Amino acid sequence: MRALWGSRASRDYLSDALTLLPGWTREGRQIKRTLVIDDSQHAALTERIKVVADALHLQPEVRRLDGHTQIRLTPRDGETITEGEVTLAARIEDAYRTVTSSA
Q: Which residues does UniProt assign to the signal peptide (predicted)?
């Protein structure tokens, strides 16, 4: 998934990108996703997220609450969601499919 970013066009590329990421929603200056997975899947997913997030120099918030895994991606500058956060969301979706398909 590759979208144009910046002021080259007036389209909202974040909205376009999010349509390709089912389950992800935009809430203010962050994007988020809640997954229903078991504890072992949560552990495996968290490890995969850490590897990708480190490579992208991002710090997602991943937490476990009442049998749900909650993921929030907020830009470091606190201002605008960037291509990096959307890329990480896409990689998280790949990891989620991998973790749940091996169950």
A: none
